[in-house]
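Can anyone check this?
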Amino acid sequence: MTQGPYPIEILTTSQMARADSLAIARGVPSMTLMENAAAAITRTTNQILQKSSGRRVLVLCGPGNNGGDGYVAARLLRNSRIKVKVAALTPRESLRGDALAAAAAWDGAVEPAETCSFDGTDLVVDALFGAGLARDIDGPAADLIARLNKWRRESGQHVVAVDMPSGIDGTTGAVRGVAVEADATVTFFRLKSGHLLLPGRLHCGALTCANIGIRAGVLADIAPDIFVNAPGFWLEALPFPKIEGHKYSRGHALVVCGGASFTGAARLAAAAALRAGAGLVTLASPRDAMAINAGALTSVMLREADDAAALARLLPEHMPDAAILQVDFATEALASAGLETLAHMLRVQPELHGIVLAENGSELAAVRAMKGGAKDYLALARITRDSLLTAVSEARDRQRAAVSVAYALLTPANDLPGIKVPGYGIVKEISTTNFSSVFLARSERLRRNVVLKVMNRGSSPRELDDAERFQREYEIISSIAHRAIAEIYDFGALPNHQYLAMEYIPCGDLRDRLRNPLSVDESFYYLRCIAEALRVIHVFGILHRDLKPANVMLREDNSPVLIDFGLARRSLDDAGTTGAGQVLGSPYYISPEQSQGHRVDARTDLYSLGVMFYEMLTGERPYTGRSAIAIMAQHASAAVPRLPPNLAHQQALVDRLMAKNVDERYASADELLADLGPLVAAVA
């Protein structure tokens, strides 16, 4: 499971090495990175010891920088009144660089790791080999790891791994000869692929990903292409039923079954078709398998079909969108019979999406099936529920454009707004302001629901300014590709309107979530996530300028998404101030400098985030009044309100976020994230 916010980018070991190099090149001392890494190790170790009442720690140090982390952690643990022993694989004098400096700063004894004893130890820190291990472990080091694993299993005590359990390949997750079995692993900056791939994941225990001072901006140079799997990456690809839909508008799949001894794959395919969202599923079954299929299927229609001709006669009656056929390629006779069945079906319905489940097939069989008209080919020996779902979903997607046309015919004309945008069927109005109207709409091209924002076009100075702001919103959002920023799909102009189509996020916004109390942990979760989203837009030189709970949507995995960039500006624009007489932004969340028309920068968004954080903690806005002017005056001059006594330990954070003087606030989202501490991902 996962707990709390964590970076979604996953790095290989070579990418992580480049991140270290870039951070150092940009002014972060390498020893600072090592000290910060050791501090994170110390925090995790102390947390485990507090739960077990242990006080005795053995730190195993290796020959590289991972061992250097271990020496620094040993020193920090001793400073926190923990009894620490250090054992090393390599004599200190043979170390190099930062590892040598770290070892020299440890003034305690160092015993040979090969002969060290685990007796009387409450916890072992594994700082032998890190994620960059490039060889199999053998010899004394392998014997040491075997002894460590045996001690852990027999004693029930804990092992904390530094960066990666020693012996796990940081990129592939493979075991390099032998590997430490850890209860917790502390890694740095970003997770590595070896943390999540098997068998490495089984060796890591609970994962902590610590911020050690590497700025996220280095990712632009690294360009990671692996990410933590989360619903936000694939949820929209699933064919969700629409509220106005019915079984006849959701596609019809026909599954062709083999004889009485070969019904399993067909029944699995029929169930997959239903699970994928097909409104109707028919199973064509030989007579000898009818009883078996009838007893096993409850939501699938069953029709008898003993030969290709009988199967072809079913097609005019049911006209399925897709057909799944099991074809045995073991002999030419069986293969020919199966492919002839497919040919019969295609003669009746040329647009049929035929999916072949191949038994005893090969690459040549796949080529033969595709030449015979199949749209997809799945080897029966490797078939999974997911691969069937994907194949059936792709077949069903072909019908979704036709469904949207049917929906338009079913919807009463007086229920639709007067605005018409080609390529979009408006489902309902979401909101209307003086600036624009927002609709839930169906995109015929994307075959999915979208948010359609429409603005009237005019020639007055105010309307031209609104049009420029609308164009800027498109340019800003389309320049960023990040799951914390709503994705934009389309922008266009009609004679009387401009429109913008963007990602539809159906789970509501933070304003709705704030109607129920948030815990402190939940408040910090949203604070961190929104700060990360601000970090992203600020890296692109963009200021939001209208950050408020209503502009923070929530995905199904509860991760926030920033929307509504109508007031956003690039921080390097000349127009960095608000014009005289203009007040842009929400009075409840506006910064002092923005309300007074002064120049704004990233700290303006952080002030608004501080106001939201106060509201998340207390359930109340910090300032209220009888008018917008009265509220903005409080933002400009009133003291930051005090938190209740049970939240007083968060006051310093709120004070810094909401400081009236911009120079007293956090300088950047990066600085805020670093101050909030490590981002944690606990993977069970």
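Reply from J.R.: I decoded it. The two ends are 5 Å apart (CA to CA).
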